[in-house]
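Example 247, ligand nicotinamide-adenine-dinucleotide.
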Amino acid sequence: MNGRLTGRVAIVTGAASGIGKATAQRLAQEGARLILADLNAAALDHAVAELGGDAIAFDAGDAQSCRNLVAQAIAVAGRIDILCNIAGIMDWGPMADFDDDRWERMLRINLSGVWHLSRAAIPHLVETKGCIVNMSSAAGLVGIPYTTAYCASKAGVVALTKSLAIEFAAAGVRINAICPTGVKTAMHGAVALPDGVDMDMVMRNSPKLGDLCNPEDIAAAVAFLASDDARKITGIALPVDAGQTAG
Ligand SMILES: NC(=O)c1ccc[n+]([C@@H]2O[C@H](COP(=O)([O-])OP(=O)(O)OC[C@H]3O[C@@H](n4cnc5c(N)ncnc54)[C@H](O)[C@@H]3O)[C@@H](O)[C@H]2O)c1
């Protein structure tokens, strides 16, 4: 693997599992120095033992914890070049059963977490002319029934990405999002459809290339957007969705 990211310091959230862990592995292969962050401290330690770098446990649903993560990253690595906001949760259910706590938890972790980490990291990214890669979803681009809170959180990530990309373009900070279709991870495996859902409605925008994505398919797109190969790309929401949102 070439060294597109040699000398860069990358924070990867959600790095204990799935897409975050595959991204950490890919960025390390491309030369980045890793700061791996996750709520699951035990799994995070395993990831660091495997991939190298430093582990920082944090909670994306807590603003102060997000600020602490950035401060600790600066303390251990001295700079931040790449912020990958990948930590997230999924929760399904018909609206009538989906109480306000579940709605608020979803937005707090999946959307506000991205805001708080971006707000804390951007002053450091201005210094390094760095970049942010946010993990949205195909669910941030199209509606999916029984998934309203998740879709709203991921569409919010797209809106945040585009707005901040414009605000910080003149400062040399690029900010992009990736919108995957279903990916073979613990999150996807744990989706339990509520009884009585209409599967025809759920699947009407299914991926066209057959199988689900592997985490490595998404990691490759993160590495591209984080590299200088994407130096003229900012403010995009890149579908890596096997054609799901094509029609
Ligand atoms: N798997 C899919 O089908 C799919 C599709 C599109 C987008 N995504 C998005 O990709 C991202 C990664 O998902 P994944 O499939 O790898 O899932 P995963 O469950 O394998 O990994 C998610 C990671 O986020 C961490 N996490 C959860 N809540 C956290 C919190 N409050 N603070 C810090 N860390 C927290 C978990 O501990 C876990 O390590 C998520 O944002 C998800 O919404 C996933």
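Summary: The pocket of nicotinamide-adenine-dinucleotide is lined by residues 14, 16-20, 38-40, 58-61, 86-90, 109, 135, 137, 180, 182-183, 185-188 (CB under 6 Å).
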